[in-house]
Write a structure and sequence with these properties.
single chain, 142 residues, mainly alpha
Length: 142
């Protein structure tokens, strides 16, 4: 592939990921009308585990107890985030929920500054500025 096709392909993949990510909030909101939160999360994590196992079955022999320990810690933190997000979706709109999810993605480098003393770079400051302007315009509060 030449550079022009690679850039187009990358943009199409990014657009596809955006459509899937954005539509998932509406799908989750509708699903929560008939399925309990923990059952829904269990099914999502189960399907993800099966798919990842099938994709990377050759590398399963490389797993050691250090991977299991660190993966369990990260998985628990991820589960806590999913629980909070999914319960939040019960009580708010998909638009507000997706805004909060995108907002925390922008704020992570600033949280890292507090615990690891790594200074955020320009793109993080730019994203935080855009987020602040959007919130001041009243879009986040509606």
């Amino acid at each position: 592939m030449n550079t022009k096709h690679t850039k187009l392909y990358a943009k199409l993949l990014l657009l596809g990921a955006t459509l899937i990510w954005g539509s998932s909030f509406f799908i989750m909101k509708n699903t929560l009308d008939s399925v309990p939160v923990f059952y829904l999360l269990f099914m999502r994590f189960l399907v993800a585990a099966i798919v990842l196992t099938v994709i990377s079955y050759k590398k399963l022999s490389l797993i050691n107890w250090d991977y299991v320990l660190k993966g369990s810690i990260m998985g628990t933190l991820l589960l806590c985030g999913y629980i909070a997000q999914t319960f939040g979706l019960l009580y708010t709109t998909p638009g507000k929920n997706s805004f909060l999810t995108a907002a925390y993605c922008i704020m992570v480098p600033f949280f890292k500054l507090g615990c690891c003393k790594n200074t955020p770079r320009y793109p993080q400051y730019h994203g935080l500025g855009r987020l602040h302007r959007r919130d001041r315009a009243g879009i986040a509060g509606q």
